[in-house]
Design goal:
By secondary structure, the protein is of the alpha/beta class. It has a single domain, classed as Amidase signature (AS) domain (Amidase signature (AS) enzymes, Alpha-Beta Complex), CATH 3.90.1300. Helix content is 39%, strand content 14%. An eleven-stranded mixed beta sheet has the order 1-3-2-6-8-7-12-13-11-9-10, with helices on both faces. Strands 4-5 form a two-stranded antiparallel ribbon. Helix 9 crosses helix 16, helix 10 packs across helix 12 and helix 10 crosses helix 14. The radius of gyration is 21 Å and the shape is globular. The two termini are 26 Å apart. 57% of the residues are buried. It holds the Pfam family Amidase. This is Amidase family protein.
């Protein structure tokens, strides 16, 4: 994309504040932009300079939008005239590259979509633009949202290579919203959008030390998003602070969200130790629970087992939903393959695409019959209803308002083999279609770990508890990539 917009005239600007894209809350950046102590042009320039400085190591940004500075100048003009469009006007945002942006990337990490970019914005991107946000660029992801293979490598795509964890580039950023989480952690932008089907927002947030909101299903539109399942996929924001992610979501939905933590003396939380999860992650969740108790909250252990039939129904439904969801999307893309079978065949001819892992999930989904797909609605309905009933029952049986659990992790060392199997707490709220919020909770060595909060069906109910958990548990450290500018470049 080419920046051809003329610079608007802005007169009588006061002395400017030096921007650091990762140092200030978005609410403060918005106030500084409104007072013209900071310009969007300076903020965007600082973000682009950060991308230049650290992305050769982190490899989170797949494409930079050449119009970013023009967008910033337009925002500065609006602020100078006293007519900002929203609290996000002039704020840089990075967008996961399975979310369409007109004329820019739109690959889902696959070389098969790397030709002609999308002709129009996804609906959620159109809302960002209407709010005045600056689309800074696109972030790398686990290819096809990590639905190509059961032995995939998180944060890797054939287009973007391997995204790395800003806290230690030898370690994984998880995924599939790997680039969005890593970029925010490394201060390349104050906000990013990602997507989740099961864990793809909260898991990378947890191991990259940032906050993420997976809203309830349907909160944000999914039109223009490369799908896995149009009845489970969810778009959500990531930010260094939960309040910033909540502000972004409030602007995109047009409805206010709570900004104050719940009074700790009114809070009852259930601590779920997920069976089979890493003891290191469980220990971080236990320490978070102790901090909440010290603040006055009641935190009690809860027992919870996910029924196998619920999980089988959910996976069978997902596989049956994938092909029609994807092919409906592909029909909107110029030069893209038209069918899943075409994608499978083209991948078999491409040694880069299949050089590190296969496509057995694609092959499984392509082999399903019309009869298999006809069963998907009932399987989806059963799985969702069972998950919702389970959440409601555990909250009621233990007399708690919300559940808390380690998100998953810790991050693992990157190599050329498949990633280790890692238990998470994300599947139950994902199947239920309920919101799930991840916040930083601690560290193992230099590597962050997060906790997730979920249970209630409404984010408005959940968010004050998550804000309290962040306030009590959200220790912050500077990522190593920002402390050491001479890290070796280790491409893959």
């Amino acid at each position: 994309m080419t920046d051809r917009s003329p610079a608007p005239a802005i007169a009588d600007a006061p002395a400017r504040t030096s921007p650091d894209p990762g140092d200030r809350p978005v609410t403060e950046l918005a106030r500084l932009l409104g007072s013209r102590a900071l310009t969007s042009t300076d903020l965007v320039t600082a973000c682009l300079e950060r991308v230049t400085a650290v992305d050769p190591v982190v490899r989170a940004v797949l494409a930079v939008d050449d119009t970013a500075r023009a967008q910033a100048r337009a925002a500065d003009h609006r602020h100078a005239a006293g007519h900002p469009l929203s609290p996000l006007d002039g704020i840089p945002v990075l967008v996961k590259d399975n979310i369409d942006t007109r004329g820019l990337a739109g690959t889902a990490g696959s070389r098969l979509l790397a030709g002609a970019p999308p002709d129009r914005d996804a609906k959620v991107v159109a809302r960002l633009r209407a709010a005045g946000a600056v689309i800074l660029g696109k972030t790398n992801l686990t290819e096809w949202g990590n639905f190509r293979s059961t032995r995939s490598i998180e944060g890797w795509s054939a287009v973007g290579g391997q995204t790395r964890n800003p806290y230690d580039p030898e370690y994984s950023p998880w995924g599939s919203s790997a680039g969005s989480a890593a970029a925010v952690a490394a201060g390349m932008a104050p906000l990013a959008l990602g997507t989740e089907t099961d864990g793809s927002l909260v898991c990378p947030a947890g191991v990259c030390g940032v906050a993420a909101i997976k809203p309830a299903f349907g909160t944000l539109p999914s039109a223009g998003v490369v799908p896995i399942s149009v009845v489970q996929d969810t778009v959500g924001p990531l930010a260094s602070r939960l309040g910033d992610a909540a502000l972004c979501l409030a602007v995109l939905t047009g409805r206010p969200l709570p900004t104050a933590p719940a009074p700790p003396e009114t809070v009852r939380m259930g601590l779920w130790h997920v069976p089979g999860m890493s003891p290191v992650a469980q220990d971080v969740a236990e320490r978070a629970a102790e901090r909440l108790r010290d603040a006055g909250a009641v935190v009690v252990p809860v027992a919870l087992t996910l029924p196998r039939d619920m999980l089988v129904d959910g996976l069978d439904a997902l596989c049956a939903e994938f092909r029609p969801s994807l092919e409906r999307y592909l029909s909107s893309r110029r030069g893209a393959p038209a069918t899943l079978e075409e994608i499978v065949a083209a991948n078999r001819q491409d040694p880069v695409e299949l050089g590190l892992f296969g496509q057995e999930l694609f092959e499984r989904c392509a082999a399903l019959t019309d009869e298999d797909r006809a069963l998907a609605p009932d399987r989806r309905r059963r799985s969702r209803q069972r998950a919702r009933e389970l959440l409601a029952a555990v909250l009621a049986d233990h007399g708690v308002d919300v559940l808390m659990a380690a998100t998953g992790g810790p991050a693992w060392r990157i190599d050329d083999g498949p990633d280790p199997f890692t238990r998470t707490s994300s599947t139950l709220p994902a199947l239920a279609g309920h919101p799930n919020v991840a916040v930083p909770a601690g560290y193992t060595g230099e590597l962050p770990l997060g906790i997730s909060l979920f249970g209630p069906p409404l984010l408005e109910t959940l968010l004050p508890y998550a804000l309290l958990a962040e306030r009590c548990c959200g220790e912050r450290r500077t990522p190593v990539v920002l402390r050491n500018a001479s890290l070796p470049r280790n491409p893959r």
